[in-house]
Amino acid sequence: MSDYIVRATALEGKLRAFGTITTGLVEELRNRHNATPVATAAMGRAATVGAIMGIMLKGKDRLTIQVKGNGPIGQIVVDANAEGEVRAYCTNPQVDLPLNSIGKLDVAGAVGRDGFLYVIKDLGLKEPYRGSVEIISGELGEDFAYYFTQSEQTPSVVGVGVLVDRDYTVKVAGGFILQLLPGVTDEEISYIEEKLSQIPGVTSLLSEGTTPETILERLIPGEVKFHEKVPVRFRCSCNRERLEGVLVSLGAEELRSMIEEDQGAELVCSFCKDKYFFSSEQLETLIDQIQQK
Ligand SMILES: [Zn+2]
Questions:
Q1: Mean pLDDT, to the nearest integer, of 224-243?
Q2: How far apart are CA 293 and CA 284, in angstroms?
Q3: Which of the four pLDDT bands, split at 50, 70 and 90, describes residue 1?
Q4: With contact defined as beta carbons under 8 Å apart, do 136 and 105 qualify?
Q5: Which of 66, 95, 129, 275 is the most buried (most CB within 10 A)?
Q6: Ligand 1 centroid to 269 CA: how many Å?
Q7: Measured in angstroms, how far is the CA atom of residue 243 from the centroid of ligand 1?
């Protein structure tokens, strides 16, 4: 299965649902960042939820998620847009921890607590939308559910998982989000809660070949209406021009010392790890630009 997100509704529009498979995206993140299994799982879970949150946006809108706990992974940053394009990085992709008490990758240990989950949405308005909640678990699924409920006032269930294979590549990744809108009955909620407690985890289902659509149908009472299906992919928006802007912002003095000490500058994009080299000559041109201002 290649990566996609499917959007669905059920219960006469009182329930909004999203299902996704993101194996390719998370494997690309692992590969680009040379990430350990636990860093891959943490970054992959955040990127999977980010991909779905991107699809909740419209047109050219975009969002950034920052997870800043006190754990050894540092900060996790995810960018996503309405077209299914996602990129992500974490401060320390080399973090390595023993498996947790139930024998799983210790995502909560890597992320830590005593911190916040931030969501910044660029909706094309003057000021971006900003929401944040305290990190309550560090496993991320629960934290995003808390975010939707607290910050966006939409009670939600978030299931997200990354299964890393024996050779450390990503075997499967994906997830779902169910959002309860006003009018959902207690009976309908109980039905969903019961199903959630019964079905295997997302990664078990996906590795058996269960589609995101079928996962949603197994959780939701009644008919599930599927709407658009959007492909998901890694995409970084960095380019040489933007990095020239970064260099210019450092100022002429800093650029001169780069020429003297390193005979140029090599910049690495945090998100995609692509490298950009600027020769002394190219730096001189940027210095001229600064001085002409
Ligand atoms: Zn990049």
A1: 96
A2: 15
A3: confident
A4: no
A5: 95
A6: 5
A7: 10
